[in-house]
């Protein structure tokens, strides 16, 4: 059973960055509560970028699917899902296999 990391890429609506950051801070707490490890949201910093990212890891794809089912039934999560269209144009989800431990260079 390998961990799985979800990378979310959001295209934000102009002027909604602060609202999106508030939205993201709520999800950090929720993902952690549902058994994941949230690595944070990464907001545009310099220039005219409208792209933000989020990364979180679950111990397995099965654990991620359990989170998806639980969040779909959770009223707090449902309220947040309804907020998202007002904050962004679109988002993409990519699943990655994390390498989280280091080793000495040879």
TrEMBL record:
Domain annotation NIPSNAP: ranges: 8-99
Pfam families, sorted: NIPSNAP
Sections of the chain in a coiled coil: none
This protein's name: NIPSNAP family containing protein
Organism: Deinococcus puniceus
């Amino acid at each position: 059973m390998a961990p799985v990391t979800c990378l979310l890429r959001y295209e934000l609506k102009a002027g909604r960055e602060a609202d999106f950051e508030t939205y993201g801070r709520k999800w950090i707490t929720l993902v952690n509560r549902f058994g994941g490890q949230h690595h944070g949201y990464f907001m545009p910093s310099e220039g005219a970028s409208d792209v933000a990212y989020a990364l979180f890891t679950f111990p397995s794809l099965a654990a991620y699917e359990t989170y998806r089912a639980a969040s779909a039934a959770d009223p707090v999560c449902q309220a947040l899902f309804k907020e998202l269209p007002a904050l962004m144009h679109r988002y993409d989800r990519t699943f990655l296999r994390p390498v989280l431990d280091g080793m000495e260079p040879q």
